[in-house]
Amino acid sequence: MGPAGEPVGSAAALAAIADEIRGCTRCPLAARRTRTVPGEGNPLSDVLLVGEGPGQREDATGRPFVGPAGRLLDELLHSIGWERDDVYVTNVVKCRPPGNRDPEPGEIATCASYLERQERALEPAVVVSLGRHSLQRYLPGARIGAVHGRLRRSYIGQHVFPMYHPAAALHQASLRETLFRDIRGLPAALLAAREALASEVERSVASEEAVARADEHDRSADDIEQMTLF
Ligand code: SF4
C-alpha cells in the first residue's frame, strides 16, 4: 500500500478505486443507475480528461464517452494524433443523473473523493476539464467562455486545460469549430505543464540541498565550538 492506503502503482490504485465505485451507494444517483462508470484509459498517461457524468450509453455499458459525444471526443483526439489509449477519461460523478440532467452540487461533492483519488493515482501533468461542472471543480467561479483553450493553474496548483463538453457541440455547431481549435493547443499545453513541473522539482531539490548544506555548516560550527571548550 502507498502512503494514502492505495495499492502501489497507478493501474492497481485505479482498479481498486473502480471496484469501490462499483459498490458505491453514497448518493441518490445510485438508486437509478444501471452501471457505474468509474473511468478508463492509460493508467500511465500524463493527461486526465474529466467530463460531467455518464449518459444513457455510458450507463448501459459502464464505459465513459461511448455515445455520440464520445465519438466526437475520439475525433478531437485523432485531430492531434492521439488515441483514447493515450489519455485517461472519467467524470465528476460516476453514476448517470436521471434523464441526463446536470449533476447536483451535493452529488458532485459526495462523489469528489473518488476523483481526488484518481488524480492522486495518475498524477497527470494536465487535467482537461470538459464542460462547466468539471471546470468548476478546478477553477471555481470561472466562465468557460472566458477560459477555454488556455492552460491555467487550479487553486491547488494543478495544470488545467478547460474545454467545452463535446456533447454541447452536438447541439451547437459553432462549438464544434471551437473544440477543434482549442484541442490543437493541448500538446503545447502538455509540454509547458511538464516543463513547469520539472523546474518546480529542480527548485525544490535545490532548496532541500541548500537546507542540508546549512545544517551541515551549523553542525560543523557546533563541533568547533565544543572542541574549543575542552
Ligand atoms: S455518483 Fe458517485 S457518490 Fe454517487 S453513488 Fe455513484 S459513485 Fe457513489
CATH-assigned homologous superfamily: Uracil-DNA glycosylase-like domain
- Span between termini: 51 Å
Number of discrete helical segments? 9
Structural class per helix/strand content?
A: alpha/beta
From the 3D coordinates, which CATH architecture would you assign? Answer: 3-Layer(aba) Sandwich
Heterogens:
iron/sulfur cluster
Number of domains: 1
What is the CATH topology? Uracil-DNA Glycosylase, subunit E
According to DSSP, the number of beta strands is: 6
Helix percentage range:
40-55%
- Would you identify the regions where 5 or more consecutive residues have pLDDT less than 50? none
CATH first level: which class?
Alpha Beta
* Major beta-sheet overview: 6 strands, mixed
The chain-level mean pLDDT equals: 92
> C-alpha Rg, in Å?
22 Å
Listing every helix as H and every strand as E from the N terminus to the C terminus, the arrangement reads HEEHHEHEHHEEHHH
What is the beta-strand fraction?
5-15%
Per the principal axes of the C-alpha atoms, what is the gross shape? Answer: globular
Trace the largest sheet across and list its strands: 1-3-2-4-6-5
Give a brief outline of the structure.
53% of the residues lie in helices and 10% in strands.
Task: Tell me what you see in this structure.
By secondary structure, the protein is of the alpha/beta class. It has one domain (about 10-195): Uracil-DNA Glycosylase, subunit E (3-Layer(aba) Sandwich). It is built from nine helices and six strands. It has helices at about 10-20, 55-60, 70-80, 105-120, 130-140, 145, 165-170, 175-185, 185-230; strands spanning about 40, 45-50, 90, 125-130, 150-155, 160-165. Strands 1-3-2-4-6-5 form a six-stranded mixed β-sheet, sandwiched between helices. The radius of gyration is 22 Å and the shape is globular. The structure holds iron/sulfur cluster.
